[in-house]
Structure formats: C-alpha cells, structure tokens
C-alpha cells in the first residue's frame, strides 16, 4: 500500500471527492423535528384557547404535515447552502495555490515528544 506523504487542501472540497453516506437519522432529522414542532404547536394553541389539547385533530394533522414539508425544505436548503460553500472554497483554493501549500503528513513519532515516567 503506497502512502501519500502530502495532502492537497483542495482535495477536501473537490466536487469529485468521496461523499460520506448519509444515515437514516440525518435524512429525517429536520422533517421529524419540524413535524413535531407543528403538532405540539397545535396542542399549545388549544391549551391557550382553553380547549382540550387534542380537540380539532385536523389542526394537528395539518400543522404536523406543514412541519414535515418545512423540514424537508429546510434540509434541502441546508444541503444546497453547504454545496455552494464548498464550491466557493474549492474555487478559492484552486485559484490561490500559493496560500494553500500541500500539507505534509506527519507520523506520531514526529508529533509526540519523548516521555520518560518519573517514579
């Protein structure tokens, strides 16, 4: 196995870099949280209107559904924002190579200081 001794900083933001797989929790976090906020928001509206908290269940369903749609929209927006940020950083690093020299990999022996226990 050949070891790479230098790392190019542009590789971190390259469009062709390996994209880590998203987990199930990451995929549905914002829709579930926003849907829950919508559902609980409908409960609070009923509570402050001095009604039973689960009365008008259609309000809960509508608020929860709107929350889920908002969550998916928020998730997509954050992905697009991150992709744009990465593209801007990649372009800057590629166009200004003098500011980003290749990083030399270090071994643990080079980083850690020698240590002798005193007993």
From TrEMBL:
Q: Name one Pfam family in it.
A: NDUF_C2
Primary site of residence: mitochondrion
What InterPro entries has UniProt attached to this entry? NDUC2
What GO terms in the biological process aspect are recorded for it?
A: mitochondrial electron transport, NADH to ubiquinone
Q: How does it sit in the membrane?
A: Single-pass membrane protein
Recorded superkingdom? Eukaryota
Q: What are its GO cellular component terms?
A: mitochondrial inner membrane
Keywords, A to Z, come to: Electron transport, Membrane, Mitochondrion, Mitochondrion inner membrane, Respiratory chain, Transmembrane, Transmembrane helix, Transport
Q: Which residues cross the membrane?
A: 28-49
Locations listed in the record: Mitochondrion inner membrane
Leader sequence segment: none
Tell me the protein family, please.
Answer: Belongs to the complex I NDUFC2 subunit family.
* Protein name (database record): NADH dehydrogenase [ubiquinone] 1 subunit C2
Taxonomic source organism:
Petrolisthes manimaculis
């Amino acid at each position: 196995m050949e070891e790479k001794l230098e790392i190019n900083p542009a590789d971190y933001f390259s469009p062709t870099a390996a994209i880590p797989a998203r987990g199930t929790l990451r995929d549905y976090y914002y829709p579930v949280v926003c849907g829950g906020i919508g559902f609980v928001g409908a409960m609070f509206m009923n509570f402050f209107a001095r009604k039973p908290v689960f009365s008008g269940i259609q309000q809960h369903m509508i608020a929860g559904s709107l929350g889920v749609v908002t969550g998916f929209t928020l998730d997509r927006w954050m992905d697009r924002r991150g992709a744009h940020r990465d593209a801007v950083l990649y372009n800057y690093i590629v166009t200004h190579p003098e500011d980003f020299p290749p990083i030399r990999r270090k071994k643990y022996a080079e980083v850690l200081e020698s240590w002798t226990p005193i007993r």
